Fold:
Amino acid sequence: MDFAGKNTLALDKTAGDPHKVARNLQASILFYSLGPEQSHLWAVTASQTQVFTLPGQKQIQALIEKHQKDIQQALDPAQNGPTPPRPLCTILSSDPLPR
Structure:
């Protein structure tokens, strides 16, 4: 046993099927690609794969940098200033993923 207490030998047998990997790990697997005009997020669960279109790299990067700065300053990212980083949360978790 290794990764998260799962049998790694069993995981190796399912490596070619991301849905089986997600099922075995009881988790969602996220892949992303940042692009200048738009970015994409692929969410793989035990039962499906979904693709989400996200804003371009500069917009996402600006939100991430603000969020990281708030954390480093020990500020509550959910309560900081007139424009809290809700857009980042909204962008990355707009639709709940089914299991």
Remarks:
- Residues 56-92 form one domain.
